[in-house]
Amino acid sequence: MLKRVHAKHQAGVTLVELMIGLTLGLIVSGAAISLVASISQSNGETIRATRLTQELRSLSDIVTLEARRAHGVTDPLANVGMGDDAPVSACDIAPVASASCLKIGYDCDTAAGTGKFRTFSYANGQMLLATATDAAPACGTGSVLNSSELALDAVSISAVADGSINLVLTGHLTSDATSTSRTLKRTIWPRSALVAP
To answer: Membrane-crossing residues (predicted)?
Structure first.
């Protein structure tokens, strides 16, 4: 008579194999979650940095567009050839710059004593713009130019002997106190003739 021998087949996995498989799965899952979190954080930082750069550029664009008009007159040919005998215009104040204030005038009508006068000034973390038609307004007055998203840390405005104006803005986002501050530098060239600082 023949005896049948049954081979024992293992069904499933051992506890040790299960624990090793779970451990490897957790390591791979943890690495994937860490990668996704890192990408998300980096993306957030990039978005905040871009937003801050846009805010600083927008503010500097406003100042630049106005400052380029500095010293302009309504009739630029009226004083040609007059030399030192040319009438003094109220626009001759432009550009008068101090560390945190820029006064400009343009489209001046010497006979009428009128023009467009702008004063840009930095106070309490904000850039202010004041306007008038007869003389440059005082520094520290006017409407807020920068958005509520931008807090200015420092502003430097200086007139250079070559007739240009240097503008340096440093700020951070108000919505994120941990955001790093950025600095934007711009050289502004008024369209009119060279003026001394």
So the answer is: 12-37
